[in-house]
Amino acid sequence: MNLQYIGLDEINGPLIFLENTANVGYEEMVEIKLQNGQTRFGRVVQIEGSKVAIQVFEGTHDISLKNTFTKFTGHPVEMSLSKEILGRTFNGSGRPIDGLGEVFIDEKRNINGYPLNPVARVYPRNYIQTGVSTIDALTTLIRGQKLPIFSGSGMPHNELAVQIVKQAKIADGDDSKFCIVFAAMGVKNDVAEYFRKSFEEAGVMHKVVMFLNLSNEPIIERTLTPRFALTAAEYLAYVHDMHVLVILTDITAYCEALREFSSSKGEIPGRKGYPGYLYSDLASVYERAGIVNNAKGSVTQIPILTMPNDDITHPVPDLTGYITEGQIVLSRDLNQISVFPPIGVLPSLSRLMKDGIGAGYTRADHGSVANQLFASYAMVQDARSLASVIGEDELSTVDKQYIEFGKLFEKHFIGQGFDVNRSMMDTLDLGWDLLSVLPKDELHRIDQKLADQFYNHERAVERFHLVTKHYVKGLKGDRS
After folding, report:
1. What per-residue confidence (pLDDT) applies to 390?
2. Domain ATPase F1/V1/A1 complex alpha/beta subunit nucleotide-binding: where (predicted)?
3. Peptide bond before 250: cis, by omega within 30 degrees of 0?
4. Rounded distance, CA 311 to CA 6, Å?
5. What are the beta bridge partners of residue 72?
6. CA 194, 203, 84: angle at the middle one, nearest 5?
7. 75 HSE (CA, 13 A, CB side)
8. For 10-19, what is each residue's pLDDT tens digit?
9. Domain 4-76 CATH (choose: 2.40.50.140, 3.90.950.20, 2.40.10.170, 2.170.190.11)
10. Are the CB atoms for 41 and 92 separated by under 8 Å?
11. For residue 304, which of 286, 281, 322 has the smallest C-alpha distance?
12. Any bridge partners for residue 52, and if so which?
């Protein structure tokens, strides 16, 4: 029997407090009926004896201490699910906002997920093609991986997210078994409309489940949004055998909502005011990616976060880096010279990449090409540093070639543009053409057989219109 309580003992920010309650569970769903007949929803977030704290999703404005009726439902926060959620748009609390009515329900699931035996996890292999060369070749997104994007204020991470949604696909199998769950937290109305319009114009909305939490909506809803999104992803992956790519933006907005909520509960703050349990809370979100034994589907995550003041040691990117398997870092320097997507190659990595590329997955030369592109671009930075001291005219022939390689690499490989969708083969071929700009004996990370097969300096000169004399001289390895 569900009891209904009349009146409240205290209201504090997004929280209401009740005393003398009985048989109440942590995370239990609550219905709150206001004096004007309006019904709001909440969940139990703290229990001290017979006193409970309830987090109100829609906020506590207009709630009266005397004439409020509170009913505990006896179950946690759940999401209504069926395959009809594909192509639908929901708010941060999992309610449809696209005007198409309620979702036909096959089942309801606890948004906090279910305990997963670590032994049941399968090591991620194979990859998801994003169509973005820098990601596909150098920080390959492996199916079942969690690979965050570290951005900064004013950087085009929203545009990159849209490009990935438009272009992403699984490398093998039926593309109808691939879908995307997109969750935006704390975004402005114009940004939300940009996401919605972009997906519709690209004709990909039928394979997208979208959750939108606006900046003017309650922060409590923001703390629930990623859990609703991941619940939808797990349902599609493990019930309907789909490969699901989950994009969460912006995790920093989520963490700031968590900080505000923690402060309202009177909890002792940790680093920079964030709650001491921020690490475990983020882990409860990120660790819901992966592949499970006997499941044909998978959940892959791309969380996007903005680093305050571009500080990668800030608690949010710092803790995210500990939990996830690599990171894609956007470069402000590249963004300032209009390179899109402005992905910083050297600080970016994918820790699972080595086991999901190569023969049988992408191409046998993929690993070698990626390693050599990294090494050569690192040499570019050294040559640029030297040129800033002694001047570019005083550089050796090979150092000048590295300078030229760096310009071409940033212009043609990193800066592919918003509407260009490259296949993995096109990306690797472009990588070889760029490496062929350099002398063959500078390719120290390439096996001689691969170099003999793919290296073609004449083709590179023709493709990139290289006419400077030092290339002919450089082929002889002259460093004078």
Report:
1. 92
2. 131-350
3. yes
4. 48
5. 30
6. 95
7. 7
8. 988 888 999 9
9. 2.40.10.170
10. no
11. 286
12. 18, 47
**57 within 8 A of 224, measured Cβ to Cβ:** yes
Q: Where are the domains of the chain?
A: 4-76, 79-354, 366-474
Per-residue pLDDT at 52 = 93
Tokens of 27: 């995370």
- Residue pointed to by tokens 């939108």: 212
Joined together, the tokens standing for residue 471 give 């290339």
Nearest Cα residue to 440 out of 477, 401, 413, 479:
477
Q: Can you list the residues of the chain whose pLDDT is less than 50?
A: 468-480
HSE-CB for 360 with a 13 A CA cutoff:
5
Closest CA to 209 of 218, 199, 217: 199
Please state, in angstroms and as integers, the Cα–Cα distance from residue 140 to each residue in 132, 179, 415, following that order: 10, 18, 17
Phi, psi of 398, rounded to the nearest 5 degrees: -70, -40
Whether the ω angle into residue 308 lies within 30 degrees of 0, i.e. cis, is no
Architecture of domain 79-354: 3-Layer(aba) Sandwich (3.40)
- Between CA 163 and CA 157 the distance in angstroms is 10
Q: What is the 3-state secondary structure (H, E, C) of the chain?
A: CCCEEECCCEEECCEEEECCCCCCCCCEEEEEECCCCCEEEEEEEEEECCEEEEEECCCCCCCCCCCCEEEEEEEECEEEECHHHCCCEEECCCCECCCCCCCCCCEEEECCCCCCCHHHEECCCCEEECCCHHHHHHCCCECCCECCEEECCCCCHHHHHHHHHHHCEECCCCHHHEEEEEEEEEECHHHHHHHHHHHHHCCCHHHEEEEEEECCCCHHHHHHHHHHHHHHHHHHHHCCCCEEEEEEECHHHHHHHHHHHHHHCCCCECHHHCECCHHHHHHHHHCCCEEECCCCCEEEEEEEEECHHHCCCCHHHHHHHHHCCEEEEECHHHHHCCCCCCEEEEEEEECCHHHCCCCCCCCCCHHHHHHHHHHHHHHHHHHHHHHHHHCHHHCCHHHHHHHHHHHHHHHHHHCCCCCCCCCHHHHHHHHHHHHCCCCHHHCCCCCHHHHHHHCCHHHHHHHHCCCCCHHHHHCCCCCC
Q: What pLDDT does 157 receive? A: 97
One-letter identity of residue 426: D
